[in-house]
Amino acid sequence: MAVKEKIGVVVSDKMKDTCIVAVDDRIIHKRYKKVITRTKRYAVHDTTFNSSIGDRVRIRETKPMSKTKNWVLISVLRKSAT
User: Fold this and answer.
1) What is the four-CA torsion angle of 66, 17, 40, 5, rounded to 10 degrees?
2) Is the Cβ–Cβ distance between 61 and 70 less than 8 Å?
3) What does the alpha-carbon distance between residue 15 and residue 72 come to, in Å, rounded to a whole number?
4) 42 near 58, Cβ under 8 Å?
5) How far apart are CA 17 and CA 41, in angstroms?
6) Closest residue by Cα to residue 8 from 35, 48, 39
7) pLDDT score for 13
8) Are 61 and 3 in contact (CB under 8 A)?
9) Whether 43 contacts 71, CB under 8 Å
10) What is the mean pLDDT of the chain?
């Protein structure tokens, strides 16, 4: 089984060891052929506290750590301007 990795933006970092990452997926509507952007939010395990709101990060799927947390932070690709 392949390891799933996604790239998203940190939208919340108020919890201990956890941040919320929003990942945008672009799909084409089957009938109307219009590009649709769908956003999904993932609870991500972050023990290093390197990420802050607005950072672009890479996350990887892992074994469940809690009820909603199945992803771990791999790296920060780009820090936010603020």
Assistant:
1) -90
2) yes
3) 14
4) no
5) 16
6) 39
7) 92
8) yes
9) yes
10) 94
* DSSP H helical ranges for 1-82: none
Rounded CA gap, 46 and 65, in Å? 12
**CB contact at 8 A, 73 and 55:** no
In which residue are the tokens 């590009």 written?
35
Q: What is the mean pLDDT of each run of 10 residues along the chain (82 residues)?
A: 90 94 96 97 91 94 95 94 76
Q: How many helices (H) and strands (E) does the chain have?
A: 0, 5
Phi-psi sector, 33: left (phi>0), alpha (psi -120 to 50), beta: left
Please name the residue that has the structure tokens 């709101």.
53
